[in-house]
Amino acid sequence: MPVNTDKSTISKLKKELSIAHRDLKKASTLFSSIGEAVIVTDEYGRIERVNSLTEKILGYSSNEMIGQRFFNIVKAVNEDGTLIPEIDRPITKAFLKGSAVFERLYYLTKYNSMVPVDTNVSPIIFNNKPSGAIEVFRDLTDEYIKEKIQSEFISLASHQLRTPLSSINTYSQMLSQGYAGKLTSKQLSFVSVIEKATSRMNDLIHTLLNVTRIEAGNITVNVKSIDIDNLCDEIVGSLEYLALERGISIKYTNDSITSVESDPVLLREVLSNFLTNAIKYTPRGGRVTLRVEANDRVVFSVKDNGYGIPEQSKNYVFSKFYRANNAVKNDVTGTGIGLYLAKEIAERLEGDIWFKSEINKGSTFYFSLPLIGSAEKQGKFTLEIPN
Amino acid sequence: MANILLVEDDKDLIEAYALVLKAANHKIKKAYNGNEALLAAKEFKPDLILLDLLMPIKSGKEFLKDYKKAKNSKEVKIIVFSNLQDSNELEDVYSLGADRYIIKSWTGPHGLLKIVDEVLETKDTN
Amino acid sequence: MDSLYKEVVDATADYLGPSADRFVSRQIVGHLGKSPEKLKNRDLNILIKWIKPAIALLTDDTEAVDNYISSLKSLSKKKRK
Q: What are the residue boundaries of the structural domains of chain B, listed by start?
């Protein structure tokens, strides 16, 4: 077949070739500019292309990797070092799914050390056929170190803070109970001040610890079948003394639902928090009602006829350490952490949290859960259960 | 009324617990770390051990592991003290043979006596 | 008469041994959205398209992969009721 070789055709071809070269170079540059490690495999599961970050993380040079079977180079293990079978690897799952798979696991480097990675791998569809895969992954070592430091700090802080507190607590109680001789009534009253302050400090440390645990994002949710009446009666009972002291009456109503599947410790923390706030921020003679209702969700609400929340504070109510002006005026001792903790717990339990309030009329705080309850979650910590 | 072995490295606390328990007519022996505790347990033959977890030389958990190998250790009650409450640690400690777990900074003398009495009264369920 | 599904599993067993059944049924359910026994000749193209990279990942031998894919393709040529 004669080929058209006139000048204009040749010139046109040269131009197109030059554009193609430029595009190729551009694509190549784009590939090497990607800020994560990339591996491309061909339709036979062999490594076709890698970038420098892949070389850096896995320890192999690109020459050592290209042309090799993917699984021969990229070996993956669980946290305990056991090999992950090929059939369970994300790339295998990606071909089964037909789309991207995201996972966190550990890769073994050339030198057999474990690297935690966050990876996503996707089949490459070319001409309507899967013709390989592209994997992008990231070294999580720094992130994991930060988490480890954080959890070690939590352990250290709790022990360090509580050691001197144990002595203060024990010795002041021994004083008031007469172990060092009978005290005068004035001495007793002084010791009583120490005991109250120690008790507040214990509560503060307990709350702080729970906040740091929940912020680490890793709280276990232990799902149990909760008898709602039992739980609420218990919480109301535990706050009876506080309510009596402040001249507040508490009422509990529930004629909708007997049980819910969730974590009782976490749920108790939210409801106790709502109730404590309602009691503290309502003047003498006031009323607080804990109500449980269920329609398309299980809704817990705590209503008071107290001071209410000022308009300008409403956006900050769930923020850490925030206390509205009228709250500080009425109770100097609050920490501003309780509602923040309640919100974090609500998220972990997959519930919703919100409120309604009118200044000098009162507030109602709501916490709702889906009817099917919360999902079980395995985490590094649990919240502390108060005495 | 009972022989109680106190294992705690904090000298102020161990003196306080000894004072309180002696005033309630218990017989007390003190040990400041896990090694001393093993020796003391052999000679003193306690009915109950109050065991701190974080101690130098030999920790409370390490003591429990060694102690529970002894023949006559099965009847001895163990109350573990700590300042860190985490359900993972709770599980660990119970599986090592502890009968109770209490948080030091929350438990005053009154609370301690109450728990000691409760634990001493429980019969072993076989 | 062997079902098409069983023939595919038999052809795959040469390469995957006893896990062939699970492998093939997962591919059929995943990519065709039907139960394995309902596999028809006209489904084979799509199935082969996805089985190829999946099995290529699991074996070392590219020639074997090609042979396997050819054997699957020939199954589609058989007449069935």
A: 3-121
Which pTM does this prediction carry? 0.56
Q: Taking CB atoms and an 8 Å limit, are A95 and C23 in contact across chains?
A: no
> Do the Cβ atoms of A158 and B19 come within 8 Å?
no
End-to-end CA distance of chain C: 10
Burial of A180 (0-12, 13-18, 19+ CB in 10 A): exposed
Kindly state whether A109 is in contact with chain B, defined as any CB-CB distance less than 8 angstroms. no
Q: What is the dotted CATH code of the domain comprising B3-121?
A: 3.40.50.2300
CB within 8 Å: A43 and C31: no
H or E segment at C55?
A: helix C44-58
- C58 phi/psi in degrees, rounded to 5: -90, -15
Chains touching A (3+ CB pairs < 8 Å): B, C
Q: Smallest Cβ distance to A71: which of C26, C57, C62?
A: C57
Set of chain A residues whose Cβ sits within 8 Å of the Cβ of C52: 43, 130
Out of A81-95, A137-151, A344-358, C20-34, pick the least confident: A137-151
Rounded Cα–Cα distance for residues A248 and A276 (Å): 11
pLDDT, tens digit, for every residue of A85-113? 888 899 998 998 888 998 889 999 999 99
Nearest CA in chain C to A133: C53
Task: Check if the beta carbon of residue B67 is closer than 8 Å to that of residue B73.
Answer: yes
